[in-house]
């Protein structure tokens, strides 16, 4: 057999398209990332935490204006619970930590929980 000097094969960069030419084919790709699962942070009613403290919590940790904070607090007071905000998992967990810590430091039994949004 006779060895032939050949040039190394280069990858063919030209998209092969019926009809040839220099057309570029763009494939539709399925979306690979999903939106993150979201968690709602909920405050629970109790008989001891002062209304004013809850209003301040809603203003400070959930960025509510005073009027909105008061409405949410009253809703919790009447209905037993209320959503304060919806966040990604880590942010929601941090809110729960911050609120619980502030409540305990002030000597209040306020309960704050995060739950997945369906
Ligand atoms: N029920 C409380 C009171 O009458 C007020 C309150 C509101 C407490 C909301 C907790 O998440 C709460 N002082």
From TrEMBL:
Cite the Gene3D superfamilies for this sequence. 3.30.1390.10
Domain named Adaptor protein ClpS core is located at 35-112
Q: Which UniProt keywords apply?
A: Hydrolase, Protease
Q: Where is this region: Disordered?
A: 1-22
Gene Ontology biological process terms in this record: protein catabolic process; proteolysis
- Subunit details: Binds to the N-terminal domain of the chaperone ClpA.
Task: From the Swiss-Prot or TrEMBL record, give the protein name.
Answer: ATP-dependent Clp protease adapter protein ClpS
Q: Which organism is it from?
A: Tepidimonas fonticaldi
Give me the gene this protein comes from: clpS
